[in-house]
Amino acid sequence: GAAAARDQIQIAGSSTVLPYAKIVAESFGETLPDFKTPVVESGGSSGGLKEFCKGVGPDTIDIANSSRPIKDSEIEACKAAGVTEIQEVKIGYDGIVFATDAGNADLALEPKDLYQALAAEVVVDGKLVANPYRKWSDVNPALPDAEIAAYIPGEKHGTREVFEEKILAHGCKDSGAQDAIKALVADEKEQASKCIAVRKDGLAVDIDGDYTETLARIDANKSGIGVFGLSFYENNADKLKVATVSGVAPSTETIASGEYPVSRPLFFYVKKAHLGVIPGLKDYVEFFTSDDMIGPDGPLAEYGLVAAPDAEREEIRKSFEAGNIM
Amino acid sequence: MSQVTTSPATAAFKASVRPERRDIGLRRRYASERRFRLYGLAAIAFGLLFLFLLLSSVVSKGYTAFLQTKITIPVEFSEQVIDKDGERATDPKVLMTANYPVVARNALAKVLGVDPGDRAAMREVGGMISDSVRVQLRDLVVADPSVIGRTVDVAILAHGNVDSAYKGQIDLGVDEKNRKVSDRQVGWMNQLAETGALAGHFNTGLFTNGASSRPEAAGLGVALVGSLYMMLIVLVLSLPIGVAASIYLEEFAPKNRFTDLIEVNINNLAAVPSIVYGLLGLAVFVNFAGFPRSAALVGGLVLTLMTLPTIIIATRAALKAVPPSIRAAALGLGASNMQTVFHHVLPLAMPGILTGTIIGLAHALGETAPLLLIGMVAFVADVPATPLDPATALPVQIYMWANEAERAFVERTSGAIIVLLIFLILMNVGAILLRRRFERRW
Amino acid sequence: MSISLLLLLVAAIGVTGYVGGNRRAQALAGGRLSSLHSRPGYYGSLVAIWALLPAIAVLLVWIVASPVYIGSTIRSGFPEAVQAEPQATQNLNYNMVGAIARGLKLLTPEERATISADAAAARALLSSKGVPLAADPAPYMVEAAQNLDRMTTTSRMIVTVLVLAAALAGAVVAYRSVAPRLRARNRVEGVMLAGLVGASSIAILTTIGIVASMLTEAVHFFSMVPAWEFFFGTVWDPRFAAAGATDSSGQFGLIPLLAGTLYIGFVAMLVAVPVGLFAAIYMAEYASSHFRSVAKPLIEVLAGIPTIVYGFFALASVGPFLRDISAQLNGLATGSYASFIQAQSVLTAGFVMGIMLIPYVSSLSDDIITAVPRALRDGSLGLGATRSETIKRVVLPAALPGIVGALLMTASRAIGETMIVVLAAGVAARMQLNPFEPMTTVTVKIVNQLTGDLEFTSPQTLVAFALGITLFFITLCLNIYALYIVRKYREQYE
Amino acid sequence: MNILSEAAVEKALDKKMNDVSYKMIGQDVSVYYGDKRALYDVNLNVRENTVTALIGPSGCGKSTFLRTLNRMNDTIDGCRVTGRIALDGDDIYDPSIDVVELRARVGMVFQKPNPFPKSIYENVAYGPRIHGLARTRAEMDAIVEKSLQRAGLWNEVKDRLQESGTGLSGGQQQRLCIARAVAVSPEVILMDEPCSALDPIATARVEELIHELRANFTIVIVTHSMQQAARVSQRTAMFHLGQLVEENDTDKIFTNPDDQRTQDYIMGRFG
Amino acid sequence: MNILSEAAVEKALDKKMNDVSYKMIGQDVSVYYGDKRALYDVNLNVRENTVTALIGPSGCGKSTFLRTLNRMNDTIDGCRVTGRIALDGDDIYDPSIDVVELRARVGMVFQKPNPFPKSIYENVAYGPRIHGLARTRAEMDAIVEKSLQRAGLWNEVKDRLQESGTGLSGGQQQRLCIARAVAVSPEVILMDEPCSALDPIATARVEELIHELRANFTIVIVTHSMQQAARVSQRTAMFHLGQLVEENDTDKIFTNPDDQRTQDYIMGRFG
Ligand SMILES: Nc1ncnc2c1ncn2[C@@H]1O[C@H](COP(=O)(O)OP(=O)(O)OP(=O)(O)O)[C@@H](O)[C@H]1O
Ligand SMILES: Nc1ncnc2c1ncn2[C@@H]1O[C@H](COP(=O)(O)OP(=O)(O)OP(=O)(O)O)[C@@H](O)[C@H]1O
Ligand SMILES: [Mg+2]
Ligand SMILES: [Mg+2]
């Protein structure tokens, strides 16, 4: 009931943001012993935002972590439930890397290669046909002579979206498939979705679990290629070998500078109405956005978060202070 | 049938010459008997083999989690670092917020003979020590502020990477920049190990600490307490409710469409995927009844609902198996239905009920999915004092650790599984002892 | 007075009532207990019930009603400006008032006075007592908190009196009603029966709760995706809504998921049923009690291992093993060392799930088989049947309805299992017949769609509810059918 | 379970029901198992302090009738009783009648011995305990001893009262069940072939016990042994195919029955 | 289960074992249930094509002895047999002896009727089916009909052969069990109080059946009824407290027993 007063911050949402939120929450509890350590739930951006948009009050959560920007329809739903003032905080970027077993040779990937290996339909001899390639070397002789096996994020993951947008869409264009598709279907939306359709014959495997599962799959199938978050790769660099994309090796630097093409921003959303009422909430957000945490030398960056550029971080802090709402 | 007259002389081979021995297919039937028996043994062997494979794979991966590398060094609680301006008398906050990691880092640097001015080296020295040293030293100082200015031997948690390296879980043959410990750190580690400063200790933190993002400091404390609360709630609620419901349905309910409906309904509830119970718990206990999120109470209630059908089905089967003549005997003596059930039928059904309860509880103990939706798959650092505080559960902790990126969490995941299995085995043993008591066949 | 103390007092009244009722009944009987309708204990219990039930009812009403009443009273005392704000904001303010009120209890009277006079001092003072506040409270909040504190105290006092009065009154009324011909046992048993009925109704309530908690969202889903497309669609491909794209319709075909569910469940039962049944038979009919007392609990451990552990076992050990074995076999047969079993496949998932299900089959069947009366076995053995013939032809048929029940329960678990399938069979929703290829199940998709990063208002997420409710009704139909089958057997044999 | 009261018989009944010499009255009793009718309008009264024997070929409904007398058939699904049965003038199928109390007053011994899987002592003590017949341990001991003695079992089991009742031989088990029923001191005791598993000596003792009990109790006994019926009973009722063929003084039945079927049955001409 | 062969008795045994007039020979048979001894060195031979009745007070070990004759006691945990029992001269406790074949040759009818929860037809057909005694459906039908007729049950059940055997009344059930045992055409039939649940007519029919069967089979019957023993048996063995008191021609036992205890028992003086 409403009578029980709450004195602990409650956070829910994306499992990609979770490790960062955990580090912050833990440090927050240690450096500000006045407040209890916040509770950070995992359950996906969708679940987090759903709880977030349940309403305002001590029996609803304060913060939703998200690995994608909140959607308009979700803002609508929030508003309908009385959550009218939402503050958005961007915490940095998540690099997305392609890696294979550490025992393999170095790998240099192009969006085009990935597209041809993984798309549902490719252009062969100027015609659009169901993907006939079985081996990486069929796609590009420079690639290993091994059966295609790619462990890509399942459709429930935000990472998949980035993968489609930054790799498949580009590869589609580069390989000339886009033109072939344009010639076939008139509807633009359908063109776009055909361009990012992944083959379903079992060579491209959706992973709906976390990166540990991808790692286990690569362990079981050494010639497979998996998609990982940069932080995960860095923690398992001894077992994995990362591939360059368009010749750029992923690192915090190359991603921050935008050289490495595949990354996405991470966010959390705060209920403004809770700021003055839930003990420690404001302090938590300030603590999170401080350079001690999300700065390039902070523990988050050490874990693998790609810090936003200095100016952007300053902007983020200012925007929060100013109480800007969405 | 055997009209053959046999003299003593032919007695020796009489059995073989008896003419009318019917052929009742003995060879075939015995072969089938042996086969049947063998199938049974093979089935049990099959189950036990996989149990063994599973357990050995878990144990071989996880036993190291029970050891934790610590570095025992003399730490100087320098007033310079902790309370430069001597404000602690007036402002107790100073002691809380002092820079303890530096204290620890300096102490280690001194032991290793590293120049405190060498910033790069000092960073690596700092990387040898767990970040949780802040809390460790702070608690020491706050408990006894008189240590300030003195030098005390403290066993400091080694960093997770050092821990993994020390346990040989990091392949040191890999290129230095592809692993989490540098060659220099490995050198220091060996140096400290030789002097005995760095050594594996029994990992009590694994059982007492709450969740942490640092593997070396992460423990099952919250999960253990949470699971304990939940199991108590499940046991206290589901056993009596389940047994009561079964008694009603089996012994009292009129046999009609409505009770058929209940029966089908209960069987169906056993089939409902567990995550659906999470949806139910979220809607009913959190949103409607207003219980707090992430609380063991809600988890216990959800698991109770999930376990009930299992217990009810098993209990009904056990009640059904009690011979009707026992009921008739009691009723004939003038015992009421209620007395008959509670005095005779229930005790006889007890072994079956307990079996069902063990299975149900074990199921509940290992369940993660429903807890996801009520906020128990979460990072919770503080050990819950009551079932209303945020908590996690053992399988949740396993699930979360399994998804951690750091190598040091791999052994902890298996270690946590071992703990969970021990939890489970203890429960089983308890129930078996109980069952023995009841199973006493008269 | 704290609630636990109050409960303790009520319990004490109950116990006293029990003793009193018991004594009075004995006194009335005057040494001839058989002149009483029931045993004296029943009279005692009756008095205790009358003492406890009304008191607990009063207490429950209070626990539910008093926060609501006090809350609305306090809120009506909020300044106009605050009352004009939306309900949710008021809730938050009220939360703060609650926190202050909680803190007030820890303060000395002087400190209270300070706070009343100077609201701004409250935050620091309370924080020093370990009650953190998010901001400086407005003056009206401190006032409201004082009121709240007072009202709670009063309401506690009132409820204490009411509860105790109810307990005493109940006890006294019941005590005085004690008479030799009072059917105390029937009444007590009536209360017990009501309790039993209540316990059974929880199953119904759970079902209602499940349906209700999924229905609105499922209806929402069906308003976006036509039902026939969902139920009869043969393609499962809820396309990820590309960034910026507003239209995000996909193909929500249930059939591939259902096929995967049934296929994997079937394979699992194929493993679990023979192994479990044979294990049960061996343990019930052949094994020495010593062997049994060791093997049975060991097998039961299999049921307790969390499914996620099985999942990793399948992923890391069984899957690769099957794949390599198939490569070897293929090599021997055709010379080409290509594996025909994929590491993640229906077979892997079904096999590992089957292992998990063994104890469900074996333990339950074991108990059922043991319960078959000895006379039946004797009858068969006495005719010259071997043990296995006795088992196959007499014991198992007699135990069949029970075993079918156990198998159904097991099948239910197979259908509801998630983690093993996620890890061992993958998440690819495909429709095919080859057990060596991956497929996926309904439950996997329920979890995935619920815990993903998708938009929570989109059909991609809402489909989880439609899947849940569909699965619920499918298993319901299966269960109805199973009940019918079991009944048929029973009629034949009894 | 029973459909009662056609107004027509009401009056006739009232008269009979109050006839004190009848301990129990059965009026137009019919019993159905589902659709199958097992008893056809049986009119049979049981006299107080008398042993009534029910005889008849197997399957004729003796057990069925016996079970209606203490409503044990309530426990059989689909069993339905019509007609009227009264104990001391009170309709025992009346809703106001407490079936538990009824069964404490009308005890029962079954055809197949069914001891509880408890100790011998507990088997006997159970009834007195639930009915509160003993207040002290010593009283209980006395009841148990007396009941076992009456059932002729005391000497055999007195040294192993704490052993299980199911470990006894069949005959011993049945005598234990008799002891158990006697321990409650019911007013009427129904016995369904109580001696079918007993040897002659034990049978003789039970028959003696029946003689003894007759002074204070009313006994209805189903038996296959016409000798037994002749020895123990004062009244005998002969059933055939669910019908009551005749009921009369035992002497009369065995020497000069009214009905040809009884005659034939006794002579062993049918069954 | 049994501890065999002391060399000393070996020789004496060999002689007796081969005495053809004995179908079964029991030599120094003792039985223990755990620590409890139920039989004391019983020496009892069963003659071929003869009905041997075992009588004695309840609990004296009649059933126990009977069960040793087809090793049904193998199924009781903790039951141990010493001494020697032979069928047609072969020690039935010899490891080379097959217990299944033994039980097919030595059939058994139990004290409590125990029909299988199957149809009446299936109950009777069960034995012939497992032993493969009928090759066609018609043969099986014939066996079932004949067996039911012999047990005097055919007329009662011929119209409901497909109904469940457990739905019969107690007496019918027991006759069904007799039919079931007869259907296997054993050489010896052991009957443990087969008539204790039967009415006189059914009993008479069973006794008739026993007479009939005697021509081809050897029958051992436990009974409480001395009349029955006198009617059906040629030889009678009297047990008391686990000991064989005496064994002799039935006429002799009932007119002029050697042992005082037998005399007393028959006169009803102890039990
Ligand atoms: N529970 C039951 N369900 C259906 N029919 C039953 C049931 N009990 C008895 N019957 C039938 O009712 C009839 C009368 O049975 P009852 O047991 O009363 O006979 P009985 O005279 O006691 O026979 P017996 O001497 O063999 O015990 C029989 O035909 C029997 O098959
Ligand atoms: N399974 C058993 N375990 C222990 N003791 C037993 C068992 N079966 C029988 N006994 C004991 O062995 C003795 C002989 O029993 P048995 O059943 O052979 O007697 P019986 O002569 O057949 O008696 P009844 O005529 O009552 O059937 C009895 O004292 C009995 O208590
Ligand atoms: Mg009967
Ligand atoms: Mg016997």
From TrEMBL, chain B:
From the Swiss-Prot or TrEMBL record, state where the protein is found.
Cell inner membrane; Cell membrane
Membrane-protein topology: Multi-pass membrane protein
Task: Name the coiled-coil region(s).
Answer: none
Task: State the CDD domains in the record.
Answer: TM_PBP2 (cd06261)
Q: Which UniProt keywords apply?
A: Cell membrane, Membrane, Transmembrane, Transmembrane helix, Transport
Is-annotated flag, keyword Cell membrane?
yes
Q: Which InterPro entries match?
A: DUF3333, MetI-like, MetI-like_sf, Phosphate_PstA
Transmembrane ranges?
Answer: 36-59, 228-249, 269-289, 295-319, 340-365, 415-434
In this protein, which residues make up the domain named ABC transmembrane type-1? 224-430
Q: Which family does it belong to?
A: Belongs to the binding-protein-dependent transport system permease family. CysTW subfamily.
Q: What is this protein called?
A: Phosphate transport system permease protein PstA
Gene behind this chain? Answer: pstA
Automatic annotation (TrEMBL), chain C:
Location(s) in or outside the cell: Cell inner membrane; Cell membrane
Task: Answer whether the UniProt record assigns the keyword Ligase to this protein.
Answer: no
Reply yes or no: does the keyword Cell inner membrane apply: yes
**Which residues span the membrane?**
41-65, 157-178, 190-211, 256-281, 301-321, 341-361, 394-415, 462-486
Q: Which family does it belong to?
A: Belongs to the binding-protein-dependent transport system permease family. CysTW subfamily.
* UniProt xrefs under PANTHER family: PHOSPHATE TRANSPORT SYSTEM PERMEASE, PHOSPHATE TRANSPORT SYSTEM PERMEASE PROTEIN
**What's the name of the protein?**
Phosphate transport system permease protein
Question: Which species does this protein come from?
Answer: Shinella pollutisoli
Q: What is the lineage of its organism?
A: Bacteria, Pseudomonadati, Pseudomonadota, Alphaproteobacteria, Hyphomicrobiales
From TrEMBL, chains D, E:
Q: Which UniProt keywords apply?
A: ATP-binding, Nucleotide-binding, Phosphate transport, Transport
Top-rank taxon of the source lineage equals Bacteria
The UniProt GO MF terms for this protein read:
ATP binding
Q: Which residues form a coiled coil?
A: none
- Cross-referenced InterPro entries: AAA+_ATPase, ABC_transporter-like_ATP-bd, ABC_transporter-like_CS, P-loop_NTPase, PstB-like
Show where the ABC transporter domain sits.
24-266
The family classification in the record reads: Belongs to the ABC transporter superfamily.
Q: Which PANTHER family match?
A: ABC TRANSPORTER I FAMILY MEMBER 17 (PTHR43423:SF1)
Q: What is this protein called?
A: Phosphate ABC transporter ATP-binding protein PstB
**Which source organism?**
Shinella pollutisoli
Q: Which gene encodes it?
A: pstB
